[in-house]
Amino acid sequence: xxxxxxxxxxxxxxxxxxxxxxxxxxxxxxxxxxxxxxxxxxxxxxxxxxxxxxxxxxxxxxxxxxxxxxxxxxxxxxxxxxxxxxxxxxxxxxxxxxxxxxxxxxxxxxxxxxxxxxxxxxxxxxxxxxxxxxxxxxxxxxxxxxxxxxxxxxxxxxxxxxxxxxxxxxxxxxxxxxxxxxxxxxxxxxxxxxxxxxxxxxxxxxxxxxxxxxxxxxxxxxxxxxxxxxxxxxxxxxxxxxxxxxxxxxxxxxxxxxxxxxxxxxxxxxxxxxxxxxxxxxxxxxxxxxxxxxxxxxxxxxxxxxxxxxxxxxxxxxxxxxxxxxxxxxxxxxxxx
Length: 337
Ligand code: ASP
Prior knowledge:
By secondary structure, the protein is of the alpha+beta class. The chain is 31% helix and 23% strand. The protein has eight helices and 13 strands.
């Protein structure tokens, strides 16, 4: 769990700096009139390259001691989408998801075929050892030991055990919730969402979570005025169809005359009379629904008028926001503004 007690001041600062770098990469695209999809990809690639996050380099390990990466992207303008699962050699899974969306007739590719497709699109391929981090390996060893499961050999190419590591010390009970995602609205009025993850520590049998399932961990629709990326207990987020439901709830809320709702934006947004915007209410109701099934997690939501909202049922979620009229703002714990 992401809690104050689990992060040292140095780790806290490192996460905030990393989030700011990702926000700046996305903002740079949008500032130049670029597309929401490019902004989402730019922000996510920064986090995929950063060993702090459970995505790309820094992904958690499967029970067999491998890194199997999942990602998805969706274009709100035309509801096209692309997803990949179980990648082991593609450096930027989000770029592979984008290529599936734009360069293939399919929506989801898995396993070696997905890596082969990414390679055919000239996306950078790396030795699987590239994804090794001591922090995540130790997290796997602890998880397997705690669950009386066999610990596999250290992967070939990993630095010898006990070698001094410059990586920040691990909060070892952080099994999940380092998944990365981004949602964006561009100056053309288009929304996009993307998500990338290593999944859950010690996953087995080719397990795939919610991230590459369109409508569960990732969804965007200009029509609904909504883009969503989720992190959390994937099994529950799939069953609750979290991301799609948030967008559907927002569309319904906007079109309904539920008691207590008042107009509060220039673009048809509605608020409850306690000034909670429809996007916040939709996100919170959906997170509550996933929690009632047994799944914890959080979402980032972008609205068609450029407001970012967060909802979570966990004590923390790494998150941030930037707008053309706002400096980047980052937060970690649930009780931060
Ligand atoms: N949702 C991801 C999964 O289930 C894990 C996470 O967000 O931490 O694969």
